Amino acid sequence: MSAILVDNLSKRYQIGVREKRFPTLRDSLAQLARAPQRLFRRNGTGATDDCLWALKDISFEIRQGEVTGVIGRNGAGKSTLLKILSRITEPTQGFAEIRGRVGSLLEVGTGFHPELTGRENIYLNGAILGMRRAEIDRKFDEIVSFAEIERFLDTVVKHYSTGMFMRLAFAVAAHLDPEILLVDEVLAVGDAEFQKKCLGKMSGVAKQGRTVLFVSHNMPAVQALCSRCLLLQGGRLQLAGSVQEAVGLYLAGNQPVDLDSEPGEVVVQNLRVNGSMVPEVHAEQPLRFEFDLGLRRDVAGYRMILVMENEAGTTILHAVRTDRDLPEIRRAGNYRLTLTTPALCLTSGAYSYYVKFIWNGLNVKGRYVSDKAVVTFGGNYVSDMSPGVLTPATDWAAEKSQRTAVSKRPPAPTHAG
Fold first, then answer.
1. Pair type for strands 287-295 and 266-273
2. Residue 74 within a domain
3. How far apart are CA 301 and CA 324, in angstroms?
């Protein structure tokens, strides 16, 4: 059964135009005085040329109980999509059908009244969600405990810090038993402990069979929580499919590229780890990087470098080979390269890797950098919040020691009289 059904959904904004309202004669005269040229910029559809399609012809279906991630670069249309699903804004074309009670957390403060206390806002938000007072009473203590605002419960929320505001907003949205939970960048605010609590709560909501639509730039969180993923680019739906494939395209630049058609003297394609183009491996697994190399002319004096980076752009692996190491790769032709490493013991998350090919021969100089591919190191992100890069397997042992851990203070020196 469908929980969310979206068909040919589009949303257009006029750049520099406020939300539509009934104009007065004064408004019309002022607009004419400010920009008379706008009268001549209408196209055949009645819209001005300076418009932006935040969403264009989006169609997808989310079934009841699915946890779906929505990813994409800034401006891809993610927040606009959630605002339409939350009935905050209307689509320009198409429709979105929601079947079930919706709880949404879109921006800090959405649906909260700054002049009301935390206590009053809990009841206000519950009423907006269609909850009866008895239902809110039953969940009240759990909401307050999760938000950790007991001391400030009867303070007006305009005096809350951003972190307090977000904790309360998330607690209300997640605890009042919505059938569909829409969450937009909840992890962008708050410390690591709060993020961990949010992930744990959303995981619990999903296990109860409720539908979750989770917008985030946090790829490990998306991978840990979601069973499907929507990848948006420039207002269009580029992919609706597996989380691995969507995250791989996102981190590789959102552009599936046919490298066979790539011009130039060097082509690198079919990047793979352990035989897969979108692999998920465990920290303790050895890695086998493979790629196909095509040389369209003889190339000497080269350096070939395989680079692996984390999401912050920090280089994790930098493996170099030269034509002295691989003398057989100098003539034009097609080659398959393999690089193996021991287990890297990396923290759970997504890591991008690519190949640099730099040459400086007698007759030709050049540089080629392949597109990025992605390898995901598996693990339970909810419980694995290690801030480090490495998470090696470690064995701890303890035994009774005969030595005193802390030396006794030496006796004070005595002086002869």
1. antiparallel
2. yes
3. 8
Enter the tokens of residue 349: 């998350």
Say how many residues make up the chain: 417
Helix and strand numbers (H, E) in the chain are 8, 18
- For residues 199 and 289, membership in a common domain is answered with no
What CATH number has the domain bearing residue 296? 2.70.50.60
How is residue 201 written in tokens?
């709560």
Please name the amino acid found at residue 166: M
Pairing of strands 315-322, 228-233: unpaired
Number of domains in the chain: 2
| Sole residue written with tokens 């203070």 | 409
* H-helix or E-strand spanning residue 375: strand 373-377
Residue type for position 210: R
Distance between CA atoms of 124 and 173, rounded to whole angstroms? 12
- Measured CA to CA, the distance from residue 25 to residue 20 in angstroms comes to 15
Phi, psi of 323 (to 5 degrees): -65, -20
DSSP string, 260-305: GG--SSEEEEEEEETTBSS-EE-TTS-EEEEEEEEESS---SEEEE
CA 367 from centroid of its chain's CA atoms: 31
d(CA 347, CA 325): 32
Cα(384)–Cα(387) distance, rounded to whole angstroms? 9
Per-residue pLDDT of the chain (417 residues; tens, 9 = 90+): 789 999 999 999 887 655 555 555 555 556 655 555 444 444 444 445 578 899 999 999 999 989 999 998 878 999 899 999 988 889 999 989 998 878 777 765 566 788 999 999 999 888 877 778 998 999 999 999 988 889 999 999 989 887 788 788 888 877 877 788 888 876 555 566 777 777 788 888 888 888 999 998 877 778 878 889 999 988 999 899 888 788 877 876 644 333 333 447 888 888 889 988 767 888 888 999 999 999 888 888 889 999 998 877 788 999 999 988 998 898 889 999 999 999 888 887 788 898 999 887 656 677 888 878 888 886 544 444 556 777 777 777 788 877 655 555 555 555 554
CATH code for the domain of 103: 3.40.50.300
Q: Rounded to 5, what percent of the chain is helix, strand, coil?
A: 25, 35, 40
Ramachandran bin of 318, using left for φ above 0, alpha for ψ from -120 to 50, beta for the remaining angles = beta
